[in-house]
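Worked Example 4.2. Consider the chain below.
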Amino acid sequence: MNTTSFLKPLETASTVEILGELIGQTAAAKLFSTFGTLTDIGRVGETELIRLAGLTPKRARHIKSAMVLAQRLTTDTPPAKPICDTPESVANILREDCRGYQVETFHLLMLNTRRRLIRLEKITQGTLDTLLIHAREIFKPAILWNASAIVIAHNHPSGDPTPSEADIKVTRDLIRAGQLLKIEILDHIIVGQRSTERSKDYSSMRELGYFYS
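Applying the procedure from the previous section yields the following structure tokens:
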């Protein structure tokens, strides 16, 4: 019988119960009866946990590990994610990865309401000049990560970032799907290479007029 579904959510559990998930409920209860509060438990070392509360060295180690992680969480400052509000800013994120691809590779950039990147995912790879993509592959992770908007992107191994007829069709299909799901597709960026004829190594399908107003 699977009892996982009957477990109390950690958000509603008591501090003793949460600690019991790490070291066992009996040991957690004894720990609190000995030291009184979580703060007091955090102040003592592993040796004291073993000597005064009767914990095994392994359980004492688990407790101290959890305490140290909690301390670091309070001071953790993750680096700011980049803002993707222009075609160039998107191309800057993808350029180095796309440089090494020998086949077309489709990327999804998920953004919050301020157009800051939440997550970048590589969705699928194709051939030298063909890439098959389905709407569910795009919008499933966007929904999972609660994205307010997305940018889709892929590379052209030939170096020419000009959209193909297939690129245009796929983009318009995905725009319609996004409208139904209330997830805006801001742009479709195609990454290629600079040349004597091209000053930019990417193209924006929105700038080229392939997006509906």
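The radius of gyration is 26 Å. Residues 38 and 95 are 48 Å apart (CA to CA). Compare this with Example 4.1 before moving on.
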